[in-house]
Each structure stands twice: as C-alpha cells, then as structure tokens.
Amino acid sequence: MTIAATNTIFLVDDDHVVRESVQNLLRSVGHIVEGFPSVEDCLERLQMESPAVLVLDVRLPGVSGLEFQRRLRSADDRIPVIFVSGYGDIPITVQAMKDGALDFLTKPFRDQAFLDAVQQALEVSEVYRVEMRGLAQVQGAYESLSQRERQIMGLVIQGKINKQIGASIGISEVTVKVHRAHMMRKMNACNLADLVRMGDRLGLPSPGPFG
C-alpha cells in the first residue's frame, strides 16, 4: 500500500532522551514526526490537523496516555495508537488493547519491531482516510438529492418496489420511476446493491426483504 507523504507520526513522551532517540529513528527511515512532552502540548497541534499515528507513553505528566486514548475513543476518533512503556504491566497492556491500541511495546524495544508497528499503523490510517473520503462523497451525493428523491431512496433500500412506493407516498408509478432514475444517477449507484451499501454508510434504515 502507498502511504501518503503528508502522514505525520505524533510522539508523546516526557523523557527528552527517549523522545529524541525515537524521533531520530523514525526520521532515519523517512517518516515525518513531531514530538511532545505531554498530551496537553500535543493537543494544541492536533487542533490544526489530524495525525496519521499517535505514539504514546503510558505514564505522562497531566493527562496519561491511557486517559488520552479513552478520550479519543469517546470522541469516535479512529487515530491509530501505539503505546510504549517502561513498565511491562499486563493489566495496563490488556486495557490499552481493549480500548483499541494497535500495539503495546515495552521499553527498551527493538527498533525493527517498533518500525513494523508504525508501518502497520500508517496502513490502518490510510485505509481509514480512504473510507472517510468515500463517505464524504456519498454524503455529498445524498445532500444533492431533493426531498422526494431522499424519500424514494429510503423506500427503495427498504425493499419496496415502484408500485408500493407510489402507493405509500401518493404518486404514480411512472413518477416514481422518474425520481428513482434521477436519484440513482445523482448517487452514482449502478444497481440496488450499490444503493443499499450507500444507505448503510449513511445510517439509513436497514433494508427489508426484496421482492
């Protein structure tokens, strides 16, 4: 997979020596990386742009790495997270992984193991970005629909045929066909299966049995 050159790795570790060492390692293989001594310092940067990957120490001054991860999860932020820690605490590791961390490495970690974890996280981030771009396109197409077309789309993905749709909203079957054709074109849907998948991404009601 090709990773976007603008992807940034955000490193949060209060140990200056470790932070510099890890930054140098990442930069030596061509990664863009920014380091911070605390979550609070990192947050100022995160307000300007979303990172590709977060590398977090578990124990930090102020907000801990685990607490930061929980906040991100509560906000439905899917930034890939890698934890590094000087303590091999199994309960903490288990909790971090349950909360969605991609990896948990104990210091001192092997350089290659760390770089492999970062590469995996970058690939996860890229997949997410592609998904978000696709969702934005679907949302934009949906917003271009008229109210009637949205109404018909909702009924179509619930499995209603044209005759049923017309009867339920009080228009002729011919008119339904016209609106449906316009809706399919605007949504760039090739067939019913495409439209159902789009409806699912938009959070529209699940389809019923077709027939």
CATH superfamily heading of the largest domain: Response regulator
Shape: elongated
Number of strands: 5
> Number of domains in the coordinates?
2
Reported for the largest beta sheet, the result is: 5 strands, parallel
Which consecutive residue ranges, at least 5 long each, have pLDDT under 50? 1-5
CATH architecture of the largest domain: 3-Layer(aba) Sandwich
Q: Give the distance, in angstroms, between the N- and C-terminal Cα atoms.
A: 40 Å
What report would you give on this structure?
The protein contains nine helices and five strands, in the order βαβαβαβαβααααα. It is α/β, with parallel strands linked by helices. It has two domains: 8-131, Response regulator (Rossmann fold), CATH 3.40.50.2300; 144-202, Winged helix-like DNA-binding domain superfamily/Winged helix DNA-binding domain (Arc Repressor Mutant, subunit A). It has a five-stranded parallel β-sheet with strand order 2-1-3-4-5, sandwiched between helices. α6 packs across α8 (173-187), α6 (147-157) packs across α9 (192-202) and α7 (162-169) packs across α8 (173-187). The two termini are 40 Å apart.
Layout: helices, strands, pairs:
Layout: E1 8-12, H1 16-28, E2 32-36, H2 39-46, E3 53-57, H3 65-74, E4 81-85, H4 90-98, E5 103-106, H5 111-143, H6 147-157, H7 162-169, H8 173-187, H9 192-202
Parallel strand pairs: 1-2, 1-3, 3-4, 4-5
Care to give the gist of this entry?
With about 210 residues, this protein is an alpha/beta fold. The chain is built from nine helices and five strands, in the order βαβαβαβαβααααα.
Protein traits:
single chain; 211 residues; alpha/beta; Rossmann fold; Arc Repressor Mutant, subunit A; 5-stranded parallel beta sheet; disordered N terminus
